[in-house]
Amino acid sequence: MTSGAAITTAKDEERFFGTILPAKEGYPAPELGLTIAVVLLGRRWRALIDEKLREIGQSASRMEAMTAIAYAPPKTTQIQIAKRIGIEGPTLTRTLDILEADGLVERLADPSDRRNKHMKVTEAGFTALSAMLAITDKLRKRMLEEISDADVRANLGFLSLLLERIETGLVPPETD
Fold first, then answer.
1. 3-class SS of residue 47
2. Which of 50, 105, 170, 176 has the fewest CB atoms nearer than 10 Å to its CB?
3. d(CA 80, CA 91)
4. How confident is the model over 31-83, as pLDDT tens digits?
5. Coil, helix or strand at residue 56
């Protein structure tokens, strides 16, 4: 078989599965299944939120940006907001341009450094954000229905630990 040729038989596959790829039997292992579930959960949750927020002319990205600004300390810069929600500055800039044009956020010049802009949600922005959060709160309640507060807290702790490890680049802890 030459490089790039199609795999056509089970015998061809045997060379890969269980050797350079995980075996098909028992795939995925629980650890891989967990990471796949986390990724799919995030994607599908965001898609559902986008679908429901579109009904009121909003989106998940707009809600994320506005929430991050609303709950940030005063004088938080645009760059800090981008880091807070885990996106690149230019991506946030496009969202903020639209939010500002819609009168939902304001960029205020930093008197000590004109390159920085401080972000502020406007009164109209708080009204819009309230409507968005009402929709997502309803969805979240339905998703977590019949799941105990103890389970929610335990899983939040677990997922927060995983997120922290990813944010630090999965650097192993120092040993003495």
1. helix
2. 176
3. 13
4. 999 999 999 999 999 999 999 999 999 999 999 999 999 999 988 888 889 99
5. coil
